[in-house]
Specification:
Blueprint (H helix, E strand, L loop, with lengths): L1 E2 L2 E2 L27 E2 L22 E4 L11 H13 L4 E6 L20 E6 L3 H13 L4 E6 L17 E5 L9 E2 H13 L3 E6 L3 E4 L2 E4 L5 H7 L12
Parallel strand pairs: 1-4, 4-5, 5-6, 6-7, 7-8, 8-10, 9-11
Antiparallel strand pairs: 2-3, 11-12
Bound molecules: iron/sulfur cluster.
Length: 240
């Protein structure tokens, strides 16, 4: 399930150029104003019996269509942290391209991290990996994953994979997508095998190069094509 407590976003790095939600060819293009959604308090809403509408044991993908650490959401995030802390029975997957705002965005009781927060740092190229991942690894976070999405070039993650539970890789989805080369995907997979990290090839992107052939892939087939390649390495937790 996805939980978007706010909507709206704007580019922060090269991976945002054709953003699936807010890029120049996306439905929400121009929606750069950050606004609370009507699902803002969704995790703590209850029914007439006082039971949570969202049952325990669920996984909530949080801010996958915006960015959790947008400065415009600083005040709202304080409430969101409280909800996350209150729902220890839910796993929250949080994805961000703004990991450098992590320390200034924490609640007072964060300590060494909430056990139900799985924080994902997005890196699209080597430059962003070398900037964001040392910061990411230096912060107090209990569960970390990396999302190489959209994967824009070959990335060497090997020196950053200690303390990372999982890596997700995906190509860019857009009419103007940049190439995702299968060799880059396989290289990251090998790095994950060497460091005992789980790996998921989520989608091929719209322009996928494999065996020297550049293929245009329909958006509705990008996930199934990636799955058919059979290269995922799944662990016990099955969060991703
Ligand atoms: S941070 Fe994410 S949601 Fe925001 S513009 Fe970039 S790709 Fe889009």
């Amino acid at each position: 399930m996805n939980w978007e407590p706010w909507t709206g976003c704007y580019p922060i790095s090269d991976g945002c150029r054709n953003c699936y939600f807010y890029g120049p060819h996306a439905k929400r293009y121009g929606q750069n104003t950050i606004e609370k959604t009507d699902k803002f308090d969704w995790p703590i809403r209850t029914n007439a019996k006082g039971e949570y509408n969202i049952k325990g044991g669920k996984i909530l993908a949080t801010c996958f269509a915006t960015d959790f650490f947008l400065p415009e959401a600083d005040e709202w995030r304080k409430e969101v942290w409280k909800m996350i802390h209150q729902r220890q029975d839910i796993e929250f997957l949080i994805l961000t391209k703004r990991i450098d705002r992590f320390l200034e965005s924490l609640p007072d009781d964060w300590g060494d991290g909430y056990g139900n927060v799985n924080l994902g740092c997005t890196v699209e190229n080597q430059e962003m990996a070398d900037y964001r991942l040392p910061l990411f690894l230096s912060y107090p976070i209990k569960r970390r994953f990396i999302a190489c999405a959209p994967l824009l070039e070959s990335i060497d993650l090997s020196k950053y994979l200690h303390g990372i539970e999982h890596v997700t890789v995906g190509g860019e989805t857009s009419r103007f997508a940049r190439e995702c080369n299968y060799e880059w995907v396989l290289s990251i997979r090998e790095q994950c095998i060497s460091s005992n990290t789980t790996f998921w090839f989520k989608n091929t992107g719209s322009l996928f190069k494999r065996n020297g052939e550049l293929q245009k892939i329909n958006p509705f087939k990008q996930t199934s094509y990636a799955k058919e390649l059979g290269i995922n390495i799944l662990g016990d937790r099955r969060l991703f």
